[in-house]
Fold these 4 entries.
Entry 1:
Amino acid sequence: MLMLAYLEETKRAVLEKFEKEINAFAGADAEGIVERKKLHYSDTVASGIVSVAADYHSDLIVMSMKGRHTVMEQLLGSITTDTIALSLMPVLVIPEGSQYRPVRKIAYATNFEAGEAVAFAKLKAWKERFGAEVEIVHVTMGRPVDRERRKAAEGFLSTEFGEVVVIDHPSVADGLEAYLQGSKADLLAFFKPQRSF
């Protein structure tokens, strides 16, 4: 009985802290941001996020980015990286300290992976929703581009989004960072294939 009371008090405190943080973040607009609050217990934070998003039939998971570890985590963050790996729905990652601005240009980083047609369809919908320009970017890391995959992808991409920007850089993360420094992209999108291992 004592353990149940402790869990209930912990739940109340966590939800109260969450509400204070949302109110501090959103100010007067906080009322419409959170429709439902749920404390969810899970093995990992990422699996909990994906599970709750699926329970609510969400269209998109929105996360912040902070902290840097591996190359992928340098771009995103460890919980964010894990959530992307587990999620079957799009994940929007917002860098810590970002200020909102309208999305006028979307950069899509591609490796011409099988299965990207699904991502391209979603990208087209986002392009239309925001009225944004889309630029397709590929970092080669000094290796020749798989011509067959690229040719198949470019046929579709050029009709929908224009030319593909090819960047030769030894690191995908650094190549994309260099591209973004010179680009006026407001949003970077990419496809994360589901792996079975």
Entry 2:
Amino acid sequence: MRDDIWVFHTVIPEVLSDDRTVQKGARAKALHDAAWGLLADTLHRADPHRFPDADVATLPAIERLPHGKPVFADGQGPHFSLSHSGRIAVCAISEAGPVGIDVQEIGGHKEIDGIVRRFFHPAEQEFLKRVGPAHKDHVFYELFSCKEAFIKMTGKGLTEDLTGFCIERGKDGCFRYVRMGQAIEPAGYLSCADEKQLPALAGCVLAVCSGQSGRVNLLRDPVELPKHP
């Protein structure tokens, strides 16, 4: 369906080095390249006539919106969003409208309490206080990933006041964005996933946000990216 959001992922090999700085830098570059490679490969598989190559170098021109969000110039491609954490890179694609995706490795942030005080809405802070210690880290990363996905969808980035809206989980188990007691538009759909939905997300959580009410399709199998010389 045209309104659907498609989510793809790939896993990079472990980067080995005795030098932790070198290892960290090499992993960051590998993840960055994997995310963009995932976009190129996915578009090529979906529409080889429009995107005849699975190489990043052949993608249509990319431009940046005022707050840094990458988009295809002059509408030459669909809406997309990229993210990476740990060893996983993810890509969300939508023909219907803006989309935001975020993946977080659980344990990737050391100062959780400081992040909560600085960036979480008071209602989110109170909610975390009520969560048992065994689940607190997982819930924190769910909320954090949802907030990141929202500001990536809107394109406002960190110019958006993260304390000015909160994430709520409804009785149906679904998340929604709320500001001043009212659901935020255009946050038409929000989905949060972990390893129960995608085995490759072991130790991570993922959130997808769109301005439409279309279904989010999570492809369970990781994409094997072609190796370019």
Entry 3:
Amino acid sequence: MVNAFPRLKYKQQDIFYFHQNYYAVEGFNLKAVDYLLKPIAFDRFLEAVNTFFDTISIEEKTKEESYNVNSDFFFVRSERKMVKINFDDILYIESLSDYIKISIHDKVIVTRETITNVEAKLPSQQFLRVHRSYIVSLKSIDSYTNELVEVNQKAIPISRKYKDIVLKKLENM
């Protein structure tokens, strides 16, 4: 039965379960997520399922990061149309609950999206979350103190939650 698996061409995530443990090596050679031996204890089953979801989560994060690395823009819906926003044009992003304001050089774009969703689209080497309501472009920072960063003559607060990370990153620039 296991002999059929090497012929599969598509990438898949498998958890094998058999009643004999000598199939385990073959299962892991096929890059199985996990191998369960019958009878299966619930704790062991739960561990295998969690390993599976951890693997999927890592792959999705890698795909998102590779998407961000290969592009220099993203789209948001604003005023009933999809608007292209270049990363280089962004000064800062401000959250207004379920809406965000994206301040770019010549205008402000308002979209119904959370700041966390937009943060996931941004390259982390170019942007910095400084507050639960603000993300700033690192290249747009004019000055900073322990309490705020100034971008395009706007004072943006640094929250206590992000303070250590923000100051460490700014000092290493």
Entry 4:
Amino acid sequence: MPEFILNPPEVESTPPILYPRGPNEKDWANKSIRARVDRWFWVYEKGWFINWDQDRWPFLTIVVHHSETKSDATPDEIAQIHKNNLWIPCYQNPNDNDPYVFGLEPHSGHCINGRETFCCYHHLIYPDGKITTELQALTKINDVWFIDMVGWHAGDWAINNQSIAICLIGDYTYADPSETQVKALIGLINYYKMFNPNVAVVPHKKVSRRTICPGNHWFGWEPSIPWTMDMSSLI
């Protein structure tokens, strides 16, 4: 059993926001037919939504990020950044036809405590050690822990589907996170090791060559994190 464990704040997952049933019955019928053959579409009597979490995998990985923002950026500010940079472009890209979202109003399908969120991290950690929960991390299916809400954080869809994203709030490109922040990160990693003792713990830049996240200033704090550099467990 790890010596230091921090349980993340609990949140309530609530039903996703539905796209309203349109006036065009032919279009609605087409969506209903597609829903029976396409895992992305979930159709109900009063509306429908796109299930971005349908590709969830068993929990294998923790990816550590930094936000590259001011150190007091709020969860809503982080979510807005992700909505602007990730979700809206996906819905406005005419070449991205999977799962047929071009032209629709952006929906994440992730509703926490009754509010839709576009945040792509499961947890945020602030310099004072405060931890927030932005996405429901795990769900148990047939006695196996799977990722529940898939975060768009790694730049790799396969990694997204198997990983929990933890973000240190602040810009640590050339600076250290606080000792309290690092201690909270270690406690949160140890908490999730109770669900998978062999979980791979990696910095974002180890799964994406397009980023230096969570920063280049490693010598002050990196040695204290229980990284797993064996990439064989990653897809």
